Amino acid sequence: MDAIKLLLFVPFIGFLGLLPYANKIEPYILGMPFLLFWVAFWMVMASIILIIVYKFDPDNKGSDSE
Amino acid sequence: MNISLLIIAIFLVLALYLGIKARKGKDMDMEQFAVGGRGFGTFFIFLLIAGEIYTTFTFLGGSGWAYSKGAAAYYVPAYIFLAYVLSYWLVPKIWRYSKRHSIISQPEYFASKYKSKSMGMIVAVLGSLALVPYIVIQLKGLGIIVSEASYGAISPVAASVIGAVVVTTYVMISGIHGSAWTAILKDFMILVVVIFLGIYIPFHYFGGIQSMFETVQAAKPEMLVLADQGLSQSWFVSTVLLNALGFYLLPQTFMVVLSSNGERTLRKNAIALPLYTLLLLFVFFIGFTAIMEIPGLQGADGDLSLLRLAIQTFDPWVIGVIGAAGLLTALVPASVMLMAASVGLTNSFFKVLVPAATETHQLIVSRIIIIGISIIALIVTVTGGEALAILNIMSYSLITQLAPSLFCSLPKTNIINKYGAMAGILAGVLIVLYATIGDVKVATFLPDIPHVINDISTGVIALLINILVTFIVSALTKHISIQQTEMNDLDKIS
User: Fold this and answer.
1) Last residue of a domain, one of B390, B418, B453
2) Is the ipTM, as predicted for this complex, more than 0.85?
3) DSSP assigned state of A17
4) Would you tell me how many other CB atoms lie within 10 Å of the CB of residue B412?
5) Do A50 and B270 touch (CB under 8 A)?
6) Phi, psi of B40 (to 5 degrees)
7) Minimal CA–CA distance to B216: which of A29, A33, A15?
């Protein structure tokens, strides 16, 4: 497994691991109670992390395999 | 006939037309039928995998859970976006192996990896067992949507039957091409409807999304956070992990992966899909508004909250459009599920029993199985009465029992063997069935156990035992070499 793919663990650890601290109503962010904002925040983070992984992933170099 | 029923009927006919037309110009062999000749690019794969985000379950069940259980409903988008993150690494490996070995179904994949026809059969049965509740969710949701949106002109049962007939018809004719074409119509409709409703409804009743949430907070603050026990944090984390692991093990998602035209298509999809799950937030906005606006829906009736609120708010023609979108969210996923179950059973049972069967025979048998599964699902739909989310969690608990064998099969040398894999799967499945049917939790045996442990999803506990059994049996049977005859037989059929 390429080192860059270890970044894929980040959403699991960040989102679920810090859940006890995020399980609260306030502060409201973007109109949402904090817990719902936390879910939305990690969805966006997941995409950003995947873009980074995709960019540096050696598997995507050259022509599509097979 | 009222205007909303007319609009729903028009979309039903349109879906049937697109589904049948999708066949045009395709020489239908098993590979075309099941995985579209492995030719789908980023766009179709996106729509087909995203089909899983907007099923009737997320549409009605998502808002229904927000309505009746509050923040616990967040588990739905949470497991879906984490499944996409996992997919970046997992799914290209599955695609590559399947392409090299001309595999078109999930049971075939396991049979090939473990060089065992019995393994294929077990996976095919388990897959079908997990798919039936899932198809039932779609048909049940379809019944609810059409019946409510037609202001009761069509009964839920009649609507479920009509929907099942339409979806069965176009799947039998066009295979997965039918699903792909109807998916275009579906995603367009659902996007427009969900975003419109999710913004309009909170603004209409409360003047904004934050003020809507503040009203809920003032009346029922417990709805906006996870509970201390029951649907607690440990329930949330375990259920999210379980479902994220199980997502690509669902036979229909697995099959969509195989229909991709390349690994990069799959990786690109992994990037875009988490953002697409953001749209589920709008479904929650509707569910939370319904808490204040239409109180009093009990139990499984929570699934009605979205439609009841819409009916209270809008003119009949808008309800017709919502109903049509809801109808499509049932048809598209149901069609892929029917395909996946039927191709799996055809490949791992019929082909093994009748090795001489031609492609034409296999196509006929797949179609007969599609009809059979439709009928079984319809019977369960009409007779059963569970809330949608319970059925969803049960499907995932069952199918995730395949996770240890899948993950162990990925490296070059597999540390477990087929005996361990099969024993583990059977142990896990039996525990899930026993616990679900008997309503057994850990506290049944250990009454003093803390809630943190008791709330852990049954599927996760079954999975842990499954892993234990898998490794123990693999270690004990290490000396048994794989019988040469079975390997040869398998080479012949594949």
Assistant:
1) B390
2) yes
3) I
4) 4
5) yes
6) -80, 130
7) A33
A25 vs B86: CB contact, 8 Å cut-off? no
Give long-range contacts, CB 8 A cutoff, 24+ apart: B404-412: B404/B463, B404/B466, B404/B467, B404/B470, B405/B110, B405/B113, B405/B114, B405/B119, B405/B470, B406/B110, B406/B249, B408/B470, B409/B110, B409/B113, B409/B114, B410/B90, B410/B93
Q: Which of B453, B490, B202, B178 is closest to B347 using CA atoms?
A: B490
Evaluate the CA torsion angle B284, B393, B51, B172 in order and state its sign: negative
Contact B388, B64 (CB under 8 A): yes
Q: For the segment B192-214, what is each residue's pLDDT rounded down to a tens digit?
A: 898 999 999 999 999 988 999 98
**B81, B210, B226 ranked by CB distance to A46: nearest:** B81
**Residue B484's pLDDT band (boundaries 50, 70, 90)?**
very low
Residues in chain A closer than 8 A to B237 (CB atoms): 16, 19
Could you give the CA distance from residue B486 to residue B352 in angstroms, rounded to a whole number?
Answer: 11
- Runs of H (alpha helix) within B101-232: 106-113, 117-149, 156-174, 176-206, 209-219
Query: Are residues B327 and B473 part of one domain?
Result: no
Residue B494's pLDDT band (cuts 50, 70, 90): very low
Q: Is the pLDDT assigned to residue B445 strictly greater than 50?
A: yes
Q: Which domain holds residue B455?
A: 401-493
B11 and B328 Cβ atoms separated by less than 8 Å: yes
Whether pLDDT at A38 is above 90: yes
- With bands split at pLDDT 50, 70 and 90, how would you rate the model's confidence at A50? very high
| pLDDT at residue B79, as a whole number | 92
How many A×B Cβ pairs under 8 Å?
113
Assess whether B205 and B64 both reside in one domain.
yes
What share of chain B has pLDDT > 90, as a percent? 23
Of B152, B120, B157, B159, nearest in space to B345 by CA: B120
Chain B touched by A47 (CB under 8 Å): yes
- Do B306 and B454 reside in the same domain of the chain? no
Report the C-alpha gap between B176 and B174 in whole angstroms.
Answer: 6
Cα angle for residues B98, B103, B106 (degrees, 5° grid):
90
Inter-chain touch A19–B237, beta carbons under 8 Å: yes
CB-nearest to B89 from A5, A11, A60 is: A5
Domain ranges (residues) in chain A: 3-57
Q: Are residues B234 and B147 in the same domain?
A: yes
Q: What is the pLDDT of residues B106-116, one digit of tens each?
A: 999 999 998 98
The verdict on a CB contact (< 8 Å) between B233 and A20 is yes
Does B309 share its domain with B411?
no
pLDDT band at A65 (very low <50, low <70, confident <90, very high): very low
Using a 10 angstrom Cβ sphere, with 0-12 exposed, 13-18 middle and 19 or more buried, the burial of residue B91 is buried
Residue B395 lies in a domain: no
Query: Which of B345, B367, B390 is the endpoint of a domain?
Result: B390
Contact in structure between B226 and B71 (CB atoms under 8 Å): yes
Tokens at B378, concatenated:
């319809």
